Amino acid sequence: MISKNFLKLVKPKTFEKLENLGVFRKPFETSFYKDFTPWICHTIQNELVSENKIENKVEEWLAQVQNDEAIRNKERVAKFFNDREEKRKEMHRLQLEKEERIRKRRAEKARLAELKRRQDLKS
Fold first, then answer.
1. For residues 19 and 5, what is the distance between their CA atoms, to the nearest angstrom?
2. What percent of the chain stands above pLDDT 90?
3. Is residue 31 within 8 Å of residue 37, measured between CB atoms?
4. Of the four, 28, 71, 88, 107, which is 20 to 30 A from 11 by CA?
């Protein structure tokens, strides 16, 4: 008698506990865990892999753009310094030509002055 009363009290709670633990699942729950959950996990994983591939491609592209820009910048800097050096050489060449013209004019004036002095001495 005691065991019957005890089982009446224990049995409903035991069934309820087992049901809460997931021992007795409804067909929807079974389908959810068996079919939908693996599918959604696989889909999310594929999306993450795809997103990661896209991010990697973008990073590669940005690195390439950065590298190309660095090369172009280096070329521009080299051209700037080369142009500046060429300009400096040209200015130096022009300065030397000017000094040479001045030296020739002074030499010519000195020669003419010497010729005049000699003519003045003869006369």
1. 22
2. 60
3. no
4. 28
Domain locations in the chain as residue ranges:
85-123
Q: Identify the pLDDT of residue 81.
A: 97
pTM here is: 0.48
Ramachandran assignment for 29, one of left (phi > 0), alpha (psi -120 to 50 degrees), beta (any other): alpha
Tokens for 42? 């696989």
pLDDT tens digits, 24-82:
567 777 777 788 888 998 999 999 999 999 999 999 999 999 999 999 999 999 999 99
Distance between CA 123 and CA 113 in Å, rounded? Answer: 15
In 46-103, which ranges are E strands? Answer: none
Tell me the torsion sign for CA atoms 116, 119, 120, 121: positive
Neighbours of 92 (CB within 10 A): 10
